[in-house]
Every structure is written in structure tokens, then in C-alpha cells.
Amino acid sequence: MAARGPERVSVLLPTYNERDNLPLVVWLLARTFSDSGIDFEIIIIDDGSPDGTQEVAQQLEKIYGSDKIVRQLFLFPSGTAYIHGMKYATGNFIVIMDADLSHHVRLHFMYSGKQKEGNFDIVSGTRYKGNGGVYGWDLKRKLISRGANFLTQVLLRPGASDLTGSFRLYRKEVLQKLMEKCVSKGYVFQMEMIVRARQMGFTIGEVPISFVDRVYGESKLGGNEIVSFLKGLLTLFATT
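RE: above sequence
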């Protein structure tokens, strides 16, 4: 693939009850891209939030313009938000990230640094390599995350250190091909994307990141998601 930089970056930003976080994360993203001279758009994909997130997104679209803020609504399992958002993405690089400020929004380093360094198809933020880490989680949440990542390493041997993270940069055409192959939903989706990428011969670079627990709102992670994750992991083990 060619080594040219992106003409435009699309950020897919799934939201659920993020009215307090959304204005700040959008402002930080817009400032970061503008300071870096990178053309961008932010696609807000809201999962029917009852807290007024959609109204906030509407106001942000008026402030920044419809060429920079694209609002969409979806009511499907987590994971399909990206599929829905891809339909509206015009960038040739796609960034996926959380809207709860847990990911450091000065994300251009993922492109200008690591992506250019190795001309990678995917650059993934990793909490489990180098000086990466997690801040603000209790012991239970850390054990769940570490345990999930350990199981995926043992069973799938993907060649990447953080399969359950959701802060990544993709070439658009690569993301489209991966989505055509992936069948998982929820938290397994991120894991399957990396496993399929390795199978299909795409190159993956990793950048250590500091993951900070959300300030406002609540995580949707619960018992049902953990059970679904384990089922999805075993399915991938049996089929890949």
C-alpha cells in the first residue's frame, strides 16, 4: 500500500449517555486536528441515549458545521455502531475511540508517529506494553481486564498485546474488509478485529497509551457482557 498520509481522518465516536463528556471530547479532537493541520470529521453514533446526548450532538453540529460533525442514531448491539458509522465516513483513515475521555484525544501521534514509521494498516493503542497503563479502575475491573487479555493471548496467540482495547487507527479499506469478516458483537468485536487482521496479513503497530477511567457516566460493562466475551473467545478459538 502507498505510504501517503491521509487526506482526511474520520473519527467514529459511539456514544451512550455522554452528554457531559461529548462537548469536551469534540472540542479537544477539533483543536488537535486543527493544530496538526489534518482534515477531519467526527461521526457521533448515538445508541438512543435517554440523557440528551443526541441534543448535545445536534448543538455541536451547529457550532462546528455539518462537514466536521456528522450525527447518526443506531439501536443495535455494540460493535455494529462502527459498521453504521462507516457508511458515512469520508476519510481514508478511520480512528475509533471512546467518547468518555478515557482515551487521550491528542491522537495524531498514532498517525504521524507510529503509522508513518512502519506504514502500518492498523495502529492500536495498548495498555499492556511499554509505559502504557490503566488509571482509576478498582482491583476487580483490573483483574477482569487482565484476565480477559491473558486468556486471549493463550488461546489465540494474536501477536498483539492488547486485544480488548478500543483506541485504534485503521486504513479505511482495511477496516471495511475486516468488518466484512467479523461476526462478533459487544466487547468481543475489538478482539476479533485484531485476530482477523493477523489472519488476513494486515500489518499492526502498537503505541503504549494511558487509559483513564471515565469521569462522568457509567460503563455498560456487566455480567452479561463478560459471559458474552467468554462465549465469543471460545468461538474464535474454535474457528480461527
